[in-house]
Amino acid sequence: MATLTRTDVPAAPSRLRSLFGALGLLRESPVAMIGAAIVLAWVIVALIAPLLPLHDPNQAIAPFKFPGAVGPKGDVFWLGTDHKGRDVLSRLIWGSQRVLVWATLATAVAYVVGMLMGVVAGYRGGWWDEAISFVANVLLSFPVMVLYLVIISRLGSSGANIVLAVTFASAPGIMRIVRGLVLDLKTRDYVHAAQTRGESSWYIMLVELLPNARGPLIVDACLRLGYTTITIATLGFLGLGLPPPDPDWGQMIAEAVPVGVFAAHAMVVPALAVSSLVLGFNLLADGLREISLKD
Amino acid sequence: MAEPVQPILECEDLSISYLTRQGEIPAVVDFNLRVMPGEAVGLVGESGCGKSTVALAIMRYLGRNGRIAKGAIRFMGRDMAGMSEEELRQLRGSKIAMVYQEPMASLNPSLTIGRQLVEVPLYHEKVSQAEARQRAVRMLAAVKLPDPQRIMAAYPHQISGGQQQRVVIAMALLSNPSLLILDEPTTALDVTVEAGIVELIKEISARFGTSMLYISHNLGLIQETCDRITVMYSGEAAEVGSVREVFERMRHPYTRGLFSSIPLPGADKNTRPLVPIPGQLPLPHERPKGCWFGPRCAFFVEAKCGHGRVAMETVDPLTGHAARCRRWDEIDWEAAKPPVRAAEPAPLGPVVVEVDRLKKYYELGSVSLLGLVRGRTVRTVKANEQLDFAAREAETVAIVGESGCGKSTFAKVVMGLETATDGEIRLNGTDIAKLPVQDRPPETIRTLQMVFQNPFDTLNPSHTVGGQIARVVRRFGGESDPARIRERVFELLDLVKLPRAFYWRRPRQLSGGQKQRVGIARAFAGAPKVVVADEPVSALDVSVQAAVTQLLTEIQREKRTTLLFISHDLSLVRYLADRVVVMYLGQIMEQGTTDEVFNPPYHPYTEALLSAVPIADTRIRKKHIVLEGEIPSALRPPPGCPFQTRCHRKLGKICETEPPPRREFAPGHTILCHIAPEKLAAMDPVIVAAPEARHAAE
Description:
The complex is a heterodimer.
Chain A: H1 15-24, H2 30-48, E1 69-70, E2 76-77, H3 88-124, H4 126-140, H5 144-155, H6 159-185, H7 189-196, H8 201-209, H9 214-237, H10 249-256, H11 264-294
Antiparallel strand pairs in A: 1-2
Helix pairs in contact in A: 2-3, 2-11, 3-4, 3-6, 3-8, 3-9, 4-6, 5-6, 6-9, 7-8, 9-10, 9-11, 10-11
Chain B: E1 9-20, E2 23-35, E3 40-44, H1 51-59, E4 66-75, E5 78-79, H2 85-91, E6 96-99, H3 103-106, H4 113-125, H5 129-142, H6 148-153, H7 161-174, E7 179-183, H8 191-208, E8 211-216, H9 219-225, E9 228-233, E10 236-242, H10 243-248, H11 253-261, H12 302-305, E11 313-316, E12 321-323, E13 351-365, H13 369-374, E14 378-392, E15 396-400, H14 407-415, E16 422-427, E17 430-431, H15 442-447, E18 448-451, H16 465-476, H17 482-495, H18 512-524, E19 530-534, H19 542-559, E20 562-567, H20 570-576, E21 579-584, E22 587-593, H21 594-598, H22 604-612, E23 620-622, H23 653-657, E24 662-666, E25 669-672, H24 677-681, E26 687-689, H25 691-697
Parallel strand pairs in B: 3-8, 3-9, 6-7, 7-8, 15-20, 15-21, 18-19, 19-20
Antiparallel strand pairs in B: 1-2, 1-4, 4-5, 9-10, 10-12, 11-12, 13-14, 13-16, 16-17, 21-22, 22-25, 23-26, 24-25
Helix pairs in contact in B: 4-5, 4-7, 5-7, 8-22, 16-17, 16-18, 18-19
């Protein structure tokens, strides 16, 4: 042992390299790779949307064009146009930006709320646990769709209300996972060590406990992003989602259904988009779980 | 060596590999083993040396990614590689039986013990239900379980750990196997219970003539149970021979290293300290060229040991003693005894911690319906009852006892994770017994720190080693400048002899011993006056145990810290402690200086504990005491003397009715017992060095 001791000051390893090391683990699961590729493709499309030579998504140009048809100015509608004459490709891409932003935001807010509830219930126990678990059980016993309808029909449709609705529906589930993990983690010696040096409860909950719950939570977050994508699409379909006229996948499907006979593509394309993104999230979650079990 | 008897089990040039992310890992290489009829062979080595892999390979339970790469395993002359799944199933459980470390994992919790036992003869010998039952009951009696009929009807969780292990052994013996494989069968048990199981194992080999393969990390247990021994190192056999031969005339530096790192009687932290084996077990894909033990060996000579695979060399053809060392006949084994580095015992300072009539009761609200009907029935667990002792500056006070004796509860009360029911703990004169840690002043918290037991739990896996030590420095060291804090952390890493680069490591990149060192660095970061160490080395391998123990004593000596050392390991306690407190069911049975406690007069419990500890020294004679029964539950402590249910020196009625008096035999040496002082004083010592050894020592 003594031979290993050196007194020179070594350099800190780079953080970037450890990040790439973590991403490299993805390669161990083909399923995770496929999922990550699908999700990443949508993220890239959403990010570069402003740079693409697209039509204005809300501009009526020529109705009922089939995919590949040529427009009045000699430009091509790769995915056709809808009944109002708007470019489907353009609406799809701008819509991806919208769904990704709101799904991520809604899931993130649900996570913050759910994790706080879970970690407090798990760590404090006793009265706190009873109260928080009771609230969670009440929320969980509500049919999710009714919950959404109540919130959005009361408060009107807006992005903020979607976040609110998703948080109400998801936070109790997240709370249960976190609570279970924390109940196990809080018996570890490093938690006792923190307690015996007089750390505050918040420090123990946020610094000592939560980071160690991250494994199962990352998997769950991927699944939940998929669910939230479906939720946003469903709300859009029911006319309760993000307010028109900006493109929204669920709304696109809803608008295209009555004229489906004439322009099936306007209905099928956004439906495929929703499915592919959800599939991507689910495959990624499955793959991550597989990788985490390997160790 | 007269006529050729066929061995029961033979492993020939056995190599076993695992397929993992890093490629194929050769876990066991060119391993030879022979178990003759009626013979007990011990397989010793540290964790990761491949001993359990060998056992699993014999049972052919290697799992999906394991395979036998080379060599053969022959059971009664038949090569097991050629057997079908069906033949193997017939063999396992009937001809070969295995007993694992965790008895609870071997028993099905949802079936009664009777059902599980009866299955064995029913399945393997197709006997009638009635006969199977009869045999099961007979076997339970043979493994010395009280009231076999009741045990038959019980579910596994209704009996104690020691009884469970006896049931597992009974199950293994029911089919009358030719070979019994025991994989650390007593590691999860308390010493007094372990002594009973060891006794049983010895009896089995004598009575049934069963051949045994006994796998253990504990050399003392091997000495008590086995005829021959194979010492494994890094997947290969390092030394083979009869137990007596290997223990007295070891011819491999690794074996010798093992023996110098265990606290045998005679070792002492001041005059004859333990000598740890430097370095670490190499990972299978990082084994060095030449001798695999080379980098850690004091006798390594590059020209001789640094190239080629080292072969097994015969030391004594008569006894079959062989060692995998090219220099075994060059090394002067007697002269090259580890250097004796005498150090003055640290002078003790004033009293720092004083425990005064400390009581800790837990109240359990009854959850049964009956309890609800009757109103609040509360049952009390008396975890600590009347603890009285003191610890001085630079002193090591060991608190010894088996599980459930209340030693860990005491640690929690001291640390403020629990509050006392009654009594006082005075730290430099201030009572802290009823102050939970949140209410203690920062100075008190800084003064009192803890080293934890489980190396895998002691560090937060999400944060770097440096970050975790730095946090303590920031809280207690009064530093706020990041550069200065980092400098302090580097110094602390130097203190525990870890490279400074470990600052950025994550706990998962560290070995168990290294993690424990970080745990020590963290405990000492705030310059505490008192450190509570709760079994700090019990989860470590012996060679690492020695190094960590050594480190702890060095730091303690330097910083003049008071160490409250909580342990169940009496050998280690004798080596390390200045004073010893022996606890049983929440009470102090005996306390005194280490010499006083380890020599007569003894409390009968201390006497039994001492006799139960396996000692890896053939020259030591021990008094033979095996306690009856199990440790009673703290929920229903027996009336009178807490030890009366198991005491081998019980006087009679008085022990059952009256609490025993606490008698003082010397200033500070007290014993809680009814037995007359002169009778206690007239006891023989439990551990005696045999005459020839005494001559050798002088």
